[in-house]
Design a protein that fits this description.
The chain is α/β, with parallel strands linked by helices and 174 residues long. It is built from eight helices and eight strands.
């Protein structure tokens, strides 16, 4: 039976996990409620991990479970604001967190999340504001930079897409 795990901070990864769990008829758990051994003992594991700058929540748990060398099928769902259609930064982040031999056994799906500035910490709001100001004054923005500026400009943005779950379900069954 599949197991769906989320490593969420503000809720988007948890929302995707609930949608995926519903689609697969699988239980859903928070990353801090499971062990690497529990993951490695499942047939299929989907880990929905939130991206915050250089951090991919849950990647350490996933790496430890994969290092146990079982026949478990692992699917990583990265959840962030950037548009995976115009950036490779998510793939670079996954590569920085998981060695090549583990990535070969891993299906990766990138989806977009949500942000509500009022829920961010002071440090996070300051960081977002600095990035936004830097992008706003830049004259020749790349498509990736323009998309990030558009995502960071409103006080609240929700780019979650329930239809993206179909790709994850395919990865689990394939």
């Amino acid at each position: 039976m599949p197991l769906v795990v989320h490593a969420s901070k503000y809720g988007s990864a948890e929302l995707y996990a609930s949608w995926i769990g519903e689609a697969l008829g699988a239980p859903v758990a928070a990353a801090d409620e499971v062990t690497p051994e529990q993951l490695a003992g499942s047939d299929v594991v989907v880990l929905c991990g939130a991206i915050y700058g250089p951090t991919l929540r849950g990647s350490s748990l996933l790496r430890k479970a994969m290092e146990l060398g079982t026949a478990t099928r692992f699917v990583l769902v990265t959840v962030g604001l950037s548009d995976p259609g115009i950036t490779t930064k998510r793939d670079e982040l996954v590569a920085s967190k998981l060695p090549a031999e583990l990535r070969e056994r891993l299906e990766v799906v990138h989806v977009r999340g949500a942000m509500d500035r009022s829920r961010l910490s002071l440090v996070e709001r300051s960081m977002m504001s600095t990035i936004r100001r830097g992008l706003a004054v830049k004259r020749d923005r790349t498509a990736e930079e323009q998309a990030m500026l558009e995502a960071l400009t409103p006080d609240s943005i929700d780019l979650t897409d329930r239809a993206a779950v179909a790709t994850v379900v395919e990865a689990c069954l394939g």
